[in-house]
Amino acid sequence: MECTLVVSHGTDISAIKREYPGLCCYEINEDGDVYYIGKPSDEEPSEGDDDSGEWLDYDEAVTFCGYCEGCIEEADACIDGNGPWAQGQLRGTDFSYLKDAGDRAERERCSALWHEAFERGKLSR
User: Fold this and answer.
1) Contacting residues for 103 by C-beta, under 8 A, at least 6 apart
2) Phi, psi values for residue 77, rounded to 5°
3) Tens digits of per-residue pLDDT, 32-80?
4) Cα separation, 33 vs 22, whole angstroms
5) Which of 22-26, 62-66, 109-113 is least confident?
6) Residue 7 β-bridge partners
7) Interatomic CA distance for residues 69 and 30, integer angstroms
8) In what order do the strands lie in the sheet with 32-38?
9) Residues 79, 61: Cα–Cα separation, whole Å
10) Helix-, strand-, coil-residue percentages of the chain, each rounded to 5
11) Cβ 31 vs Cβ 6: under 8 Å
12) What residues are paired with 27 via a beta bridge?
């Protein structure tokens, strides 16, 4: 998976780079400085891929987003393919509206990952 991180121009992201050294800046636009980590989800790692350490699984992507948003208040981190609603679900804490216990448990698990990483990120400020 791939994640993007958008921060205001010139924001110090050294704490994030220490935690995620594979983070690369690929665009500076009117929205800010845009960074990415990982590989697009439509690419599959090949056997013997010597940069396989840059691939993120879903839990790692959730953790990356939480950490970045905790570390930098105005940061906007997103998992490739997630829209605002899906990304917002990671920040949520009440999933009682879900009738299926399995769906609810999975959302709660992902939310807990995000919140734990967010708190760890806040400590890095």
Assistant:
1) 95
2) -105, 145
3) 999 999 987 566 655 555 444 457 999 999 999 999 999 999 999 999 9
4) 16
5) 22-26
6) 33
7) 20
8) 24-29, 32-38, 2-7, 76-79
9) 6
10) 45, 20, 40
11) yes
12) 34
Predicted TM-score of the model (pTM): 0.89
Assess contact for 20 and 37: CB atoms under 8 A. yes
Find where tokens 């009682």 sit.
96
Residues 6+ positions from 114 with CB-CB distance below 8 Å:
62, 63, 65, 66, 90, 91
Residue with tokens 């393919």: 81
16 within 8 A of 77, measured Cβ to Cβ: no
Whether the CB-CB separation of 111 and 91 falls below 8 Å is answered with yes
Whole-number Cα distances in Å, 107 to 2, 32, 58, 104: 20, 30, 13, 5
- Local structure of residue 73 (DSSP, 8 states): T
Find the Cα–Cα–Cα–Cα dihedral 6, 92, 18, 20, rounded to 10°: -70
3-class secondary-structure state, position 42: coil
Domain boundaries, the chain: 2-123
Token duo for residue 92: 């949520």
